[in-house]
Amino acid sequence: MKRREDLRPPWRGADPSPDAALAEKLAGDSDEQVRFYLAFNRKLPSAILSRLAADSSDGVRDTVAWTDALPDDDFNRLVEDTSPKVRATAALQERLSPAQREKLRNDPEQRVRDAANRWGARAE
Asked: 9, 32, 38, 80: most buried, per Cβ within 10 A?
C-alpha cells in the first residue's frame, strides 16, 4: 500500500503549504504548470496570490480566481480580465458585488453572461 506522501502529484508545486520563500520562487517559475498547480494552494500569502492573479497565463489567473483569500483589488482585476475564461470564473464567485455581477451579466462574451446569470438574484 502506498503512503500518502507517495500519492502526491509529481509537479514541483505539490507541497500543500510551502513556506513563503519557496512559494515566491514557485510563483516565478518559468514552467506555467508549476505556477498553475501552485495557484490551487489556498494557504498562500496574499502577496503570492496577488502575483498569481497577475500571471501571464490565463490558466493561472483562472485558478487563483477561486481563492477566497485573494485580495479584493486582485479579484476586481480578474472581473475586468482580458480573458473570457477568467471573467467567467470570476462571475461564479459569491464575493461579487451587485455592480460586478451586473457588469458581467452584460459582458460581450456569452459564456461570461451565462456564468454571471447562473446564481440569479441569490448573491445580491
From this structure: 38
